[in-house]
Write a structure and sequence with these properties.
Radius of gyration: 19 Å
Shape: globular
Number of strands: 8
Structural class: mainly beta
Order of helices and strands: EEHEEEEEE
Helix content: under 10%
Oligomer: single chain
Strand order of the largest sheet: 1-2
């Protein structure tokens, strides 16, 4: 990516797509290291590590289809982009629109190492209508916490749950 004096404030997208193989080689937690080169000494040779998880679709198979078999999020932040093909419509909750919902659900589980607040967003990453639901696991039961459908500050019909306290 190249930023110039006239484009420094404009965002640029970088998409990395892992090679899909047929190997059962496990999920990979990694850091994508971005290095900067600049004539401005304040920024030249700076680096930033962006954590990411590459999910092994051969291991998980249908995990993420139900609350009892979620995709595990090992750490934050996480950037997950995948198809919902092969998933079911298991959870229908009014949020805030009840009328028609036939979308497929992908279930994730995150256990924070300490009490914190998080933001869950499909705002910049989805090209279709999304709804976000949060449930709290209590033993063998999951209780509804909150949801969002069609967040007002996003483009299209995407969703955000901001500043959610998790323990």
């Amino acid at each position: 990516l190249t930023f110039t004096a006239s484009s420094w404030a404009s965002s640029q997208a970088l998409q990395l797509t892992p090679v899909d193989d047929t190997l059962v080689d496990g999920d990979v937690v990694l850091n994508i290291v971005l290095s900067f080169s600049s004539s401005d000494a304040q920024y030249d040779a700076q680096q930033i590590a962006v954590p990411a998880v590459v999910y092994d679709n051969e291991i998980c198979g249908t995990c993420g289809n139900t609350l009892s078999d979620p995709k595990i999020i090992p750490s934050l932040p996480i950037y997950y982009r995948s198809s919902t093909a092969g998933y079911s419509n298991n959870y229908v909750v009014s949020c805030p629109y009840w009328s028609y919902y036939s979308g497929r659900d992908v279930v994730f589980q995150y256990t924070p190492p300490q009490d914190t607040t998080i933001t869950i967003s499909t705002c910049a990453d989805s090209f279709f209508d999304t709804k976000l639901y949060v449930y709290k696991q209590e033993g063998n039961l999951a209780s509804y916490v909150t949801c969002n459908d069609d967040y007002g500050n996003c483009v299209g019909y995407t969703s955000v749950i901001a500043d959610l306290a998790v323990t």
